[in-house]
């Protein structure tokens, strides 16, 4: 039936653009179309929709131009509001019961920085009386605002994912992942910096840094190693990365392990320069992702969405 063969639209949104990758339902790894649509200032800020009606209008126009009406959407939620942490739950609970347990424990043993979360989890270790889980939480009102945009534009959200999980899915699917490595994924974009350490092929520790307007102005230009202001901005972010790595080594891993590899992705200008500076600063192997279908590497997150059922 024709309805069963509809394309799926894979989307990521940040403060400055909508990024999309269209894949065929019959073969979800084959790209049919991809691109970026700029967003003017004041529509989305640090992942929060400020002008929902304007964003709806933009999506309606895209849907009309691309003939996307009634298509399914997989969406990488903005990274700004993601909370990830380990928790322990009673061992005898099934998946539905674990969700209910978490909801009951909110505001008591399990505290989140926002109310009314959308939650998901994965069991990462089974113990004698409890199971250790990796809990992911996202503010429901933030997600609902995007769902309303999609619905108003005649799109149906079927998958909501986190960018660092989606990128790692791409990395894993390319047989690059190693259980023993302590991989620091650096998502360095024009709007933010997302740092995530993966060990035993699961995320351990994560931090999001929103870039201010001055940083963005620097990132918009072609980075030149001889321009002092560019290097000052880069050096400032390198200090942030270094502190993150130290916290992981001494606080998360109690000094028993440290970051062993770096994975650099993002839509920043002059990736070769950043790569060179990271290599010189940290003296660690730096991995990169080469995407299928000649996709630029900044599409790693939306490509990862195509690998999720």
UniProtKB/TrEMBL annotation:
InterPro entries: ATPase_NBD, FtsA/MreB, PilM. It comes from Paraliobacillus quinghaiensis. PANTHER family: CELL DIVISION PROTEIN FTSA-RELATED, ETHANOLAMINE UTILIZATION PROTEIN EUTJ. Signal peptide: none annotated. Pfam families: PilM_2 (PF11104). This is Pilus assembly protein PilM.
């Amino acid at each position: 039936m024709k309805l069963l063969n509809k394309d799926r639209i894979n989307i990521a949104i940040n403060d400055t653009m909508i990024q999309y990758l269209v894949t065929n339902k019959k073969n979800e790894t084959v790209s049919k179309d991809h691109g970026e649509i700029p967003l003017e200032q004041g529509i989305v800020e640090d992942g929060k929709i400020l002008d929902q009606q304007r964003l709806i209008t933009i999506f309606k126009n895209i849907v009309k131009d691309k003939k996307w009406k009634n298509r399914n959407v997989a969406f990488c939620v903005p990274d700004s509001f993601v909370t990830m942490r380990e928790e322990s739950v009673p061992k005898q609970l099934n998946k539905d019961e674990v969700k209910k347990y978490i909801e009951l424990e909110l505001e008591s043993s399990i505290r989140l920085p926002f109310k009314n979360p959308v939650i998901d989890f994965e069991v990462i270790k089974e113990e004698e009386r409890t199971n250790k889980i990796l809990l992911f939480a996202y503010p429901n009102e933030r997600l609902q605002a995007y769902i309303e945009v999609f619905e108003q534009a005649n799109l149906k959200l079927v998958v909501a994912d986190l960018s660092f999980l989606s990128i790692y899915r791409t990395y894993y699917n390319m047989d690059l992942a190693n259980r023993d490595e302590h991989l620091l994924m650096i998502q360095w974009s024009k709007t933010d910096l997302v740092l995530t350490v993966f060990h035993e092929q699961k995320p351990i520790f994560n931090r999001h840094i929103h870039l201010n307007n001055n940083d963005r102005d620097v990132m918009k230009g072609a980075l030149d190693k001889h321009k002092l202001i560019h290097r000052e901005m880069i050096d400032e972010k390198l200090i942030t990365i270094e502190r993150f790595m130290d916290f992981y080594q001494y606080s998360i891993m109690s000094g028993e392990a440290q970051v062993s590899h770096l994975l650099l992705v993002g839509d920043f200008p002059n990736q070769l320069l950043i790569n060179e500076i990271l290599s010189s600063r940290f003296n660690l192997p730096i991995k990169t992702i080469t995407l299928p279908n000649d996709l630029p590497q900044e599409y790693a997150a939306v490509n990862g969405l195509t690998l999720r059922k």
